[in-house]
């Protein structure tokens, strides 16, 4: 969890991965109780599901948040991690940028984003035709968290042969004309409005999709 304090009152944020196992969820709940007792119940504790990270949580990571696939309690947790890993980077600033791991296959690329491909020998920074300059700069920053090796910048359409080999070969991916154009439109925002507590409250829903309606 992450903790921020000010004026004697703290805030603890518990992150829960979308593929967290039951024993991991139970362990995190147990740790939350211990922390609550340690600080006499003063900090406000908030559970944050994966993909719903609010800006004030993202700001703690300063644009370097990386979400890996897998977990420590899996039956095969003693096996080494994969030699090739692919990360999709989204965001244009320190309060919005995060990288999340996706299967290392070409069909998971997207012309509108930046991807980091880490292999045993090098690290590629793949820039889709529709990504913005801010997205590229933030991707360079988070890529340093993923790999300390020198980054090879690859522009969509100019990939070296080894890039496709690392992804298991070329394959169709999301690269429509609309995705290849830089999107300068203001990002839409969704708010949940409720007066069930007797007060009208508007709460923003980060990274929303249709399931949030």
From TrEMBL:
Record keyword Cytoplasm present: yes
| Pfam families documented for this protein | Gelsolin
CC annotations in GO: actin cytoskeleton; cytoplasm; lamellipodium
Question: What is the annotated localization of this protein?
Answer: Cytoplasm
User: Which molecular-function annotations from GO does this UniProt entry contain?
Assistant: actin filament binding; phosphatidylinositol-4,5-bisphosphate binding
- Could you tell me which residue ranges the Gelsolin-like domain spans? 16-58, 101-164
Give a GO biological-process term: actin filament severing
**What InterPro entries does its record include?**
ADF-H/Gelsolin-like_dom_sf, Gelsolin-like_dom, Villin/Gelsolin
User: What are the entry keywords?
Assistant: Actin-binding, Cytoplasm, Repeat
Annotated protein name in UniProt: VIL1 isoform 5
What organism does the UniProt record list as the source? Pongo abelii (Sumatran orangutan)
Taxonomy, top ranks, is: Eukaryota, Metazoa, Chordata, Craniata, Vertebrata
